[in-house]
Amino acid sequence: MLKPLDNRVIVKPFPPEDKFMGRFSIPDEYKVDPNAGEVISVGSEVKDIKVGNIAIYDGNYGVNIIDEGETYRVLEKKNIFAIK
Question: What is the pTM of this model?
Fold first, then answer.
C-alpha cells in the first residue's frame, strides 16, 4: 500500500459518470469525472482527514498513479475542498 508523505492524501477516484442524451451514450472521452473519491491513506501532517472519508477535490491538481492495477490520485491537502 502506498503511504503519502507530509501533507499529501491518496484518494481512489470514483469512476466517471455515464452521461446520456436521450437514448445515446456519450463517448468515454466526454464522460464527466466527479472529482471525488475515497481517502485511502494520509500523510503524517494531515490531522483532519481520515482514511475512509469521501474527498471532493480540485481535478486540476494532483498526480494520477497506478499501483497494483488500481488508479489513485495523490493530492496536497490544500487541493481538497471538502470531506464527508
Answer: 0.81
